[in-house]
């Protein structure tokens, strides 16, 4: 009898938002590092410091299409009295023998091509006649159309200082210099740098695999006609998109009917490809809350999921636990669309970013002046209202009402307005905490 009473008291306990999040994060650790090909590592967190193995660029090269010259030979060049230099050949980007540039000589050179011996400057082709014997050239003529331009003479109309238009060896990074630090999230520029350094693979924490499913016999796939009492499944799409935006590899599972055995078999099937499971719906106190029914009945070998009441609105009913042989984290979210999304932002997103090994696991929060009053807020609950934040004005405006089914308002919000547990109303022009969603 005493054990039953203790269990009832435990179930009746109301958790704060912070307590629930702390409990979730205490049972989640960053994923083990793996070696991935560069493009597969995009969006992942680097777990090793990368140093530069060879200077970039690895050799002096031209930053312009033009002529490699001795700067001293161009000192007297003007538009009215150009300097004529003998062209001794072409230097294209890539391997090849480099000619020696002597006094009075020039080598036609392409962008990125190595600077030849003897040359200490590059004259852009626009500062020359391009070898055509006329006025300033707009561009070089194609070698196939005018092969003679690789020889003959070129007239230079403007002087070039020593070092002009040359990218010197190591001007980007020098050998042994730090390139990327552990903890860096690999985006396009970081992937490009690794490739430039010659790295084909890199050691990272992988993006977590998230399986999202919604429950409810009333749910119909978007694109299909609705029958009586049916609605389109929006939660699984919204949550899958949110998981991907958070950096995860997310897989959406079609809506599961309110049947305990179907839900159980679906979860078992999905465990093999999940680092985290997210369900929506079926977590409250109704007779058909199948998620709560199914997961509460798990055996000790199958795992444990606890269902709780949180001091928040929307999103009071929540479930969390570890299931399957590998004890995969499962977060069971309420079924109303706004409740589900707010719960994702507060609990699932931090869990995902913890799995990734990121330090900034939560959305940024700042203070803003609220433009409209909030007439009422439930005492003892932290309320999260949709808002439109204006960064320039430092204001936030409520969007829509407090109803947890108002999904259109969520689509037009870029922030959550936080009303603390002790407040029952908020006056216009007062300051509030704002969680930025964008």
Blueprint (SSEs and pairs):
Elements: H1 2-12, E1 14-15, H2 17-26, E2 34-37, E3 45-46, E4 50-51, E5 61-62, E6 66-69, E7 83-91, E8 105-109, E9 121-124, E10 153-156, E11 166-167, E12 178-180, H3 188-196, E13 201-205, E14 209-215, E15 219-220, E16 231-232, H4 235-245, E17 249-256, H5 260-270, E18 276-280, H6 290-296, E19 303-310, E20 312-313, E21 317-323, E22 328-333, H7 337-355, E23 365-370, E24 382-390, E25 395-398, H8 407-411, E26 415-419, E27 431-436
Parallel strand pairs: 1-19, 7-8, 14-17, 14-18, 15-16, 18-22, 20-24, 23-25
Antiparallel strand pairs: 2-13, 3-13, 4-12, 5-11, 6-8, 6-9, 7-10, 19-21, 21-22, 23-27, 24-25, 24-26, 26-27
Q: What would your notes on this structure say?
A:
The chain is an alpha/beta fold and 438 residues long. The protein is built from 8 helices and 27 strands. It has helices at 2-12, 17-26, 188-196, 235-245, 260-270, 290-296, 337-355, 407-411; strands spanning 14-15, 34-37, 45-46, 50-51, 61-62, 66-69, 83-91, 105-109, 121-124, 153-156, 166-167, 178-180, 201-205, 209-215, 219-220, 231-232, 249-256, 276-280, 303-310, 312-313, 317-323, 328-333, 365-370, 382-390, 395-398, 415-419, 431-436. The strands form 7 sheets. Strands 1-19-21-22-18-14-17 form a 7-stranded mixed sheet, sandwiched between helices. Strands 9-6-8-7-10 form a 5-stranded mixed sheet, with no helix packed on it. Strands 23-25-24-26-27 form a 5-stranded mixed beta barrel. A hairpin with a 4-residue loop joins strand 21 and strand 22. The model is unreliable at 1-9 (pLDDT under 50).
